[in-house]
Every structure is written in C-alpha cells, then in structure tokens.
Amino acid sequence: MIYGKVEDYLPFLKSLFNTANSFKDIDRSYPNLLQGKIMATLFFEPSTRTRLSFESAMIKLGGSVVTVNDESSSLMKGETLSDTIRTVSEYADVIVVRCNKPISEWGECDCPVINAGDGKDNHPTQALLDTYTINQYEIPRNLKIGISGDMQNSRTINSFYDMLTLDNQIFPYDSTQQTSGSFLSLKDFEEILPELHVLYLNRVQRERHEIVPKNTFVLSEKHLNSMREDAIILNPGPRREELPDHALNDSRVKFWDQVRNGLCIRMALLHHILK
Ligand code: NCD
Hints:
By secondary structure, this protein is an alpha/beta fold. The chain has helices at residues 13-22, 49-60, 81-89, 124-134, 155-166, 186-192, 221-226, 255-274; strands spanning 2-3, 38-43, 64-69, 94-99, 113-118, 145-148, 179-180, 198-201, 232-234. The chain has 2 domains: 6-119 and 261-274, Aspartate/ornithine carbamoyltransferase (Rossmann fold, 3-Layer(aba) Sandwich); 125-259, Aspartate/ornithine carbamoyltransferase (Rossmann fold, 3-Layer(aba) Sandwich), CATH 3.40.50. N-carbamoyl-L-aspartate binds next to helix 2 and helix 5.
C-alpha cells in the first residue's frame, strides 16, 4: 500500500490525531511499541524536518532505521525507482520515500510506503501535521484560510489544499469563501489578511524555477498588525524571506510548533501502520 495522497490518510485521521496527542511529550520514548521493526528512508531530494522527524519517530518507538541517499543507491546505476522500492521492501517493514517522480512510478510492493514528498505533487504527512497544528486551537465555522506561495510548484500547498477540500469534518471550511494567494494580486491578498483565521505561508520553490519570481508575499510588521488576534500563521519550512525573523516573536506564528508536531504525528503514523 502506498500512502501517497492526503485521501489515503483520511480514514484514520481522527485516531491519528488522538495518538499524536499521547506522544506529545518530547522527552519520552516508547521503546517497546515498535521493537524489532525496521523503517527504510529513501530520500532523493533534500530534507531536514521530514527525514529526521521520521527517523527520530521510529527510534523513539523502539524501531530501527536503515537508509540510502542518492549517491549510495543503485538508482545511480540506472535501477528504476520501482525496483529500488521493491528491493528495499524485502528488508524493511515500512519505507518512507521522497523523490521527484510521481507515485504512479513507484510500483507495487507488500510493504507500506509513505510519501514524504513526490516532486511538486504531494506531501501528505506535512498536511497532517499542519492540520494537527491548526486543530490545537478552536476552529470557527466558516473558517477563512489564505494560502500564499508558489502555487504551481509547492507540494505542501497541494496537500494542504487537498486536506481542506476533502475533509469538511476537520475543517468546517466554506469553499465559497475560499481565499487563495495565487489568484489574487499582492495588493488584494493584503486586503483579505484581516479576515483570515489561518494564513499558510510558503516559500518560492527556487530549485524548481529557471527564473526566480519576484514580488512575492513577505509577511511584514504591518501585515501582522492588520491580522486577527486569534489568527494562526503557518509555514512548513524551510523558512525564507516570506517569514522573516521578526515575525517569529509573534505568538500567532506557529512555525516551531509545526516543527515539533512533525515528530508526534509521524510517531502516531508509524504506530498506526506497524502496530
Ligand atoms: C517542504 C518540502 O520539502 O516539500 N518542506 C518540508 O518537508 N517541511 C517545503 C519546501 O521545501 O518548501
């Protein structure tokens, strides 16, 4: 089974969030829960948060981690990604993959495979932790969410958007009121900021552009002053100019909460899949 898209996680989303709550104390480990299980990480694109939180999650649950990177894998010798995944499935109980190839090219194997980012398309576990972070706060009906960033190239935006539109239980989100930065000019986007309950800020995906776009949204002191007192501002990281240092002092910015929640959500996910 490939846990490739947000919809693959929806059937167990609520229980996942409950389990994540029980793993929130970052000083605790649970060495008996996944003892003897092996997770393989195959990361063929850069990562800090996603990779290390998956690996730490597995270790905290008592499991072990094996890994390759692109220089040391047989992909460099021309092996197909599906053969690599199938091979690793013989050695591991779960595989976590990040690569630039769509999930349709990952092949099939008996071992569960978790998508940690497939090119521009999906990053479902990021959407899980983003949603989990928002759910720590009271969510109003007709939630208004603004998304800014690289709409064409950002897998975090794609999966976050899938989460909004697929699960109206989690987000009582009124799609008729949807606000999205890609379809608004910067000036118009600034105008809707005071209404937003959630602002999802994303970086420009420089590595996916030949010419880096200019005039992108950068959160200023003035924007922060214009926003609701109970607004939540998220950024999946890595943080660039869109979320400057000064903004991190604002308690509405949940950047570090997201980093922290990445661990307990991934612990809950590995536990759910392997228990
Ligand atoms: C994102 C990614 O790699 O897709 N980061 C992450 O996993 N937290 C976002 C990005 O690179 O912009």
